[in-house]
Design the sequence.
């Protein structure tokens, strides 16, 4: 940035538009040693979205902590679920890595660890995994879920506080129970000590999550309506994987919208199915009767024809020697990227078409 070039970012204007916390977190995230920060408002807007994600996850948590008393939470006395153990292990890992990064003055590493844990582990996965326990009829299961949810959010707010002091203070003060200190800045910084860590639970949960992602990918490729319950078959190559997926069958059914789930070692395979692999587990989704084959074939042919026009357009432009010789470099790079994107999309659509035609 240069004043003479007029491309300086006014921090006060940025704070007014995007918020102080988003701006602080952006600066920390790009504060790598020995590198210049290429700051842009798009990057700051991205971290404002991160602040919104944290706020919405906290609202969900607070809504489900009504009449909950956090005093005396004892993890050793709780019958933790697989998802509970996994998120607490991830929290302990994030706390240790954040402390190490801060001790080494690697603020960008600390921001990266906390961003990944907050967005991916806590918001995208754990909150979805725990909903059935929170909304169920068993008060003991609900109390356990509330305890873990409270513990994770409270520790997360402490971890994020040096980077995002205002939003974390606001949320922390709204948590149920008595605050151990007047302000969050006075509270001890989490180190991960006292939290469980079980590698087998983490590995098992990762397999379940990978299986859920695999089923979702097939649904997306085949354009199956998100609300439609489907049948899934999981052919496990080891009894250990089969045992993990039996324990996590409820998660798979809930998050992948599976109505009928069959799993085991050497299970009977459907004659026609879309497949994906998760670890040593083959995911098979019987598609006969699930979608209208003729309508889906028409849709894919229409999409392929549309993409073919894009491929033809950009191929023709880039094969024109005069255009390539005279066009600015950034225009050529943009067109080449669009051509590559169109060709990749065409390949995916053609593969989906083959799968659909195999169902005839």
Sequence:
């Amino acid at each position: 940035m240069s004043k003479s070039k007029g491309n300086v970012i006014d921090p006060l204007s940025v704070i007014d538009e995007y918020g102080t916390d988003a701006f602080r977190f952006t600066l920390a995230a790009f504060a790598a040693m020995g590198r210049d920060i290429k700051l842009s408002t798009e990057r700051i807007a991205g971290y404002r979205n991160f602040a919104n994600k944290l706020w919405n996850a906290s609202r969900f948590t607070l809504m489900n902590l009504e009449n909950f008393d956090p005093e005396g939470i004892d993890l050793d006395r709780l019958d933790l679920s697989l998802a509970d153990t996994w998120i607490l292990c991830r929290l302990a890992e994030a706390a240790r890595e954040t402390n190490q990064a801060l001790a080494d003055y690697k603020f960008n590493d600390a921001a990266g660890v906390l961003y990944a844990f907050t967005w991916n582990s806590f918001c995208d996965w754990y909150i979805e995994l725990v909903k059935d326990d929170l909304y169920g009829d068993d008060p003991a299961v609900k109390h356990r879920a509330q305890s873990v949810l409270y513990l994770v959010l409270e520790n997360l707010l402490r971890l994020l506080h040096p980077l995002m002091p205002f939003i974390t203070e606001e949320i922390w003060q709204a948590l149920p129970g008595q605050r151990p200190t007047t302000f969050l800045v006075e509270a001890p910084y989490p180190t991960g000590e006292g939290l469980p860590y079980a590698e087998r639970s983490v590995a098992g949960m990762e397999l379940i999550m990978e299986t859920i992602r695999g089923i979702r990918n097939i649904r997306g490729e085949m354009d199956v309506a998100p609300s439609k319950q489907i049948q899934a078959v999981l052919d496990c190559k080891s009894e250990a994987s089969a045992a993990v997926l039996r324990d996590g069958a409820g998660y798979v059914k809930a998050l992948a919208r599976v109505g009928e789930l069959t799993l085991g070692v050497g299970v009977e395979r459907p004659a026609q199915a879309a497949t994906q692999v998760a670890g040593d587990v083959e995911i098979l989704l019987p598609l006969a009767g699930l979608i209208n084959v003729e309508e889906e074939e028409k849709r894919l042919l229409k999409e392929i024809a549309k993409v073919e026009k894009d491929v033809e357009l950009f191929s023709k432009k880039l094969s024109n020697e005069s255009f390539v010789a005279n066009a600015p470099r950034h225009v050529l790079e943009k067109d080449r990227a669009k051509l590559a994107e169109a060709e990749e999309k065409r390949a995916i659509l053609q593969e989906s078409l083959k799968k659909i035609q195999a169902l005839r």
User: Anything to note?
Assistant: Residues 107-135 form the longest helix (29 residues).
